[in-house]
């Protein structure tokens, strides 16, 4: 019986260790089927990852061991010269060192849980068998987490090495193995001269560019001087700084008004020359709708044709042909919905819609009503074929409902778009203004104001309530636009001017969302209240109350600075005001309005040299202004 190979013994121990980890993973997965513990789920994930790493390590070490055995056979059976045998022996020694290094890596990156294998395995089996957990057990089982993260970076680099070496057998070459140098405490044999890492106390960190988020200009993050606008205006550098640059609302006005209550993209006719791939895909959907053997494929094709919003002739022809010839209810329903979305509400389509509205279930009713509402909003004022039949069906649907629900609301909105003076739709929508659901209230209010042109005390008060109490910022933005649509004259006739003025003035500094404050500023400008707000705010800057001065500066942050006198007053307050919060808000105003006067820059640099929150805000403002200058130079 020969002497056992120590390398083979170490590999056998490694295999036993992998089997033990697999056994623990099996126990954890079985326990997860009956118990939903967070620590158990994390434990299973960690065991799975550790098992994969150890298996990968075994693959690499196994291939190296095969090469060692092959070289040993060559040494024993070699009839070559002494120099060739010496080279083979050196190669075997080198491979043994590499194998020892990889096995040492495996010990170094072993999780704390596997080091206490005997204690933890018995304890873990007991917990799984009992299916019970306490706070102390959870704390104990999660203790491996913190220590595991300590060597996460080293583990990651080691696994990358294993993947490179173990991916293809040819990659295990002399160069690939010699590139992986060891530190002094891991090196199995002493090498002269010693590696410089022996004396180096700190590890070398290679600098790399950290990935970051690129903020694209959208509705909510556009600044008065965005990079894209400066790039388009070639004469921007030649212009002298004027006072109108301090007004931040001009670039928001058209953009905000285009986004309020906008409907999805309009119908289009796809050109095969401009977009052949999409046109080909559209053609495939049309053929699939007519010739597909499976019902599910035809349903999917009809859905796709409805959502693509392409009114090519072959698309409409396929949909109409399916509606005439196909008698499968699911296919007919999706075809009717697709034609409704495309705006092709003919007499046959109206007949099918009437049937579904009369005999359909709740989900089917909501689906067809939403498609009908979208089409009616797109084609506002366009008469439909057999419109009286559809109107009567909607009235019957609304009046027969026992209580107000989503179906009643959607039907009332469709009815309002079909007939703006319909009394049934008006009464239903007015009743929804008292609903506790703010979303339903907003849908009813927007239909009353924009579609039915109901501009009275009820709708004005409802818009004020939405702007004051709605938790969704989009609803507050829409409410400010609804006040603009109602107009100052109608608000003044109803005696609500002072109430609207106080609300807008408060929302300019009190609303937490910048986009809402911008929308409120646009509403104040449209309702001719901006000058009154300016006069009141400029008086607030000279008051003794700290909170009042802070609110005034925050309001000017949105409205802008309209005169050089106010700008000089703000700079004086930056130096002399007793309140730190007021001075911080002034620095934020300078950053938001992009005030790049040399005097202002000098003041910010002086503030940056100090300490505390004021110095940090000044540093942020200077960085923001420097980014704008760099964008101009491009």
TrEMBL record:
InterPro entries: ARM-like, ARM-type_fold, HEATR9. Gene3D superfamilies: Leucine-rich Repeat Variant. It comes from the Eukaryota. Residues 110-133 are annotated as: Disordered. Signal peptide: none annotated. PANTHER family: PROTEIN HEATR9 (PTHR38323:SF1). This is Protein HEATR9 isoform X1. It comes from Geotrypetes seraphini (Gaboon caecilian). The lineage of its organism: Eukaryota, Metazoa, Chordata, Craniata, Vertebrata. The gene is HEATR9.
